[in-house]
Design a protein that fits this description.
By secondary structure, the protein is an all-beta fold. The protein is built from no helices and 8 strands. It is elongated, with a radius of gyration of 15 Å.
Length: 93
């Protein structure tokens, strides 16, 4: 997610199959742990913290983003886009 000038989280574009009205689930990223059998780092599933609804799109086709508003949950708001690096989106089923 990134923070837009309108203070709504921005999400991927129409090129990725989104349309106005789509609902997206917002998850916090899961904890990274080491697999005791393989020694490889794995990321545990995140926790669903809310939902966004796609309201519109902005930008040129090469850098277009969707603007989405919160539908539910405790989605943080911040002027620093880095705050959103701890979250990911999935299309709601």
């Amino acid at each position: 997610m990134r923070f837009s000038a309108t203070k709504k989280p921005g999400v991927p574009s129409k090129d990725q199959g989104l349309k106005v009205g789509d609902i997206l689930d917002v998850y916090s990223k899961g904890k990274s742990v080491k697999n005791p059998q393989t020694g490889m780092d794995i990321v545990l599933p995140g926790k669903k913290i809310g939902q966004l609804k796609v309201e519109s799109f902005t930008g040129e086709p090469s850098n277009e983003v969707a603007l989405a508003g919160a539908v539910s949950g405790e989605i943080p708001r911040a002027d620093d886009a880095a705050v959103y690096s701890g979250f990911y989106l999935e299309e709601s089923k």
